[in-house]
Amino acid sequence: MLYLWIALGICCGLALIALFVWLNNSLLTTTEYTVKTEKLPAPVRIVHLSDLHGKSFGSHNSRLVARVARLRPDFIVITGDIIHKYTDKNIKVALSAVSSLSLVAPVLYVSGNHELRGLQYRLFAKQLKEAGATVLDDCSADICGLTVTGLKCSSQKNGAVQRLAPSQAAQKSLNILLAHKPHFLEAYAPLGFDLILSGHAHGGQWRIPFTKTGIYAPGQGLFPKLTSGLHTRGNTKMIISRGLGNSECPLRLFNPPELVVINLK
Ligand SMILES: [Fe+2]
Q1: 204 CA distance to ligand 1 centroid (A)?
Q2: Displacement of CA 92 from its chain's centroid (Å)
Q3: pLDDT tens by residue, 183-227
Q4: 200 CA distance to ligand 1 middle (Å)
Q5: Which residues touch 254 (CB under 8 Å, ≥6 apart)?
Q6: Would you list the domain boundaries of the chain?
Q7: How large is the average pLDDT for residues 133-144?
Q8: CA-CA 20 to 30 A from 55: which of 23, 137, 200, 250?
Q9: Which phi and psi angles does 256 have, rounded to 5°?
């Protein structure tokens, strides 16, 4: 009888651990920010998604799309790493998500480092456009009375971001930069963008419980500083999404997937 109780206890413990790991990797959380500005005549609501890495929340990302729809955004931005690798599954998941999201609101997309690892990116970017996304690799789009500029992930160091910076005249309206990697904040901050939206760091992947301290982020190393939240440098704010999926490390701990909502008022 004692062995039976021990076996039952082990089974319950394993089930609880499995539930805990599932919740840490599949429970969608939403973080909402309000950014005050005098540059907009009317409020604008943005849903910011990042780092899906080919993951699906429900069949064809139905849970993710339903959550975004409930948030009623004026437009949606995706800041890269929508795929992990160029596998058929990853491509299907990404295109299906973009196709469904574009029925909710306009989708603006910029590449991350994972899309650019493969030679297929040119074809993939074309497929994203066909699925309904506006691909903002080193270019801008005007939407809802503001300008959104995307920095292609491979253009971090070639001076593109300086060329894309808004002119003095353009700075009279609100300018948002989509840039996958947050750790170039100090380089972006002087360029005249009001708001920068980034991802890439996955919140530090594993977090120390009950703190916002992540363990590791690429480009920042151990205990990285720029993995989530709102950061201000002068007149520029950066909001970093903790992202939705996983990269080389297949698990998140104390760091569930995150959708970000930004209310510009
Ligand atoms: Fe990523």
Answers
A1: 11
A2: 19
A3: 999 999 999 999 999 999 999 999 999 888 999 999 999 999 999
A4: 4
A5: 24, 206, 207, 208, 209, 210
A6: 2-264
A7: 97
A8: 137
A9: -70, 160
Q: For 229-245, what is each residue's pLDDT tens digit? A: 999 999 999 999 999 99
Q: Compute, in angstroms, the gap from residue 171 CA to the centroid of ligand 1.
A: 30
Position 159 pLDDT exceeds 90: no
Distance CA 123, CA 129 (A): 10
Which residue, chain included where needed, has tokens 């005050």? Answer: 36
Specify the pTM. 0.94
DSSP characters for 56-114? -SSGGGHHHHHHHHHH--SEEEEES---SSS-HHHHHHHHHHHHHHHHHS-EEEE--TT
| Ligand 1 midpoint to CA 215 (Å) | 15
pLDDT of residue 12: 81
Second CATH level (architecture) for the domain 2-264: 4-Layer Sandwich (3.60)
